[in-house]
UniProtKB/TrEMBL annotation:
Span of domain HTH araC/xylS-type: 205-303
Protein name: AraC family transcriptional regulator
PANTHER family named among the record's database cross-references: HTH-TYPE TRANSCRIPTIONAL ACTIVATOR RHAS, HTH-TYPE TRANSCRIPTIONAL ACTIVATOR RHAS-RELATED
GO molecular function: DNA-binding transcription factor activity; sequence-specific DNA binding
Spans through the membrane: none
Stored Gene3D superfamilies: Homeodomain-like
UniProt organism field: Microbacterium hatanonis
Record keywords: DNA-binding, Transcription, Transcription regulation
């Protein structure tokens, strides 16, 4: 499968957390929710995410699970903390969810603030394809697209409704907004890091197609070079320049990225997942998986199941 298609097909929100925030004056929010991915659209005003400006009309995507600060200006201190399960507290531990609620899925320190943010959060890691952690930066910003993407206004409208099927519509609209934002970023960003998202070298993309379409095959640099019709040295050099790592290192990362997603399916055995991504036996797969992630496939699956159940 083409990696961009795999990646953009990944977001599948399930009971995503979504709301509109209105803030005025000097403010700061310390976000420690450990969410997999958060989309923030600036409907009015401006804010900073760890000091990076997001202005009126911008859309930002924050990759978790590390904490980050959202403030009115750079240097403002946080007075609000967002924890796991979107628990909102003051720094002294007071629950602020009811106190700062201003409407249906609307929250803030005022009813109509200088800054209005639409926020959609994928709380569960399984709702995002594993490629997120390999392909996206910690923070990406797409400038001035709020008013050209109708999904934003549709999502804002749905967030403001109390409807039995509203959560399902919110989930799907958030998926579309996420895909649209990341796709625009891949097409226009000037500060993208080396990855398959940005590489357009035909030799490298030919090799990538082999790895993505048939990860289970016992690929070597020689075999990839034959498919790309270049020498081994040429492929190795061009691949590293275009992707940022060697073909074999990339293949390992790709296999284990696929494996992390497949492990969320309880109907597939550990051995079956390993075979699907190119490991001939469960032991070899478990060894490679633990070397890369620090945990065994079984422990990873058990941990993911606990998060999903929350």
């Amino acid at each position: 499968m083409d990696p961009l298609g795999y990646f953009l097909g990944g977001p599948r929100a399930s009971r995503a957390f979504a709301l509109v925030i209105d803030m005025a004056g000097s403010w700061g929010i310390d976000v420690q929710d450990e969410a997999a991915l958060t989309v923030i659209a600036v409907l009015r005003g401006a804010a900073r995410i760890d000091g990076t400006l997001i202005d009126d009309g911008d859309i930002a995507v924050v990759r978790g699970p590390n904490p980050y600060l959202v403030t009115d200006v750079d240097g403002s201190a946080a007075s609000i903390e967002i924890g796991r399960d979107q628990l909102c507290r003051s720094l002294d531990g007071r629950d602020l969810r009811s106190e700062m609620r201003t409407g249906v899925r609307r929250w803030g320190n005022t009813a109509h603030g200088e800054t209005t943010l639409l926020i959609g959060t994928y709380n569960r890691p399984r709702d995002i394809a594993g490629l997120v952690e390999n392909a996206l930066p910690r923070l990406l910003v797409v400038r001035g697209t709020v008013r050209t993407d109708p999904t934003v206004s549709m999502l804002a409208h749905e967030i403001a409704r109390e409807d039995a099927a509203g959560q399902i519509v919110i989930d799907r609209l958030l998926d579309v907004l996420t895909v649209n934002t990341i796709r625009r970023w891949t097409e226009s960003s000037d500060d993208r890091a080396h990855s398959w998202l940005t590489c357009d070298d035909p030799i490298v993309t030919a090799a990538l197609a082999c790895l993505h379409d048939r990860p289970e095959e016992p690929w070597t640099i020689e075999a990839l070079a034959r498919h790309a019709t270049v020498s081994r040295a040429t492929l190795a050099s061009r691949f590293r320049a275009g992707v940022g790592q060697s073909p074999m290192a990339y293949l390992t990362n790709w296999r284990l990225t696929l494996a992390r997603d497949l492990l969320h399916d309880p109907n597939q055995t550990i051995a079956a997942v390993g075979r699907t991504v190119g490991y001939t036996n469960a032991y070899a797969f478990s060894t490679a998986f633990k070397r890369e992630t620090g945990v065994s496939p079984t422990d990873f699956r058990n941990s993911a199941s606990k998060v999903t159940a929350q």
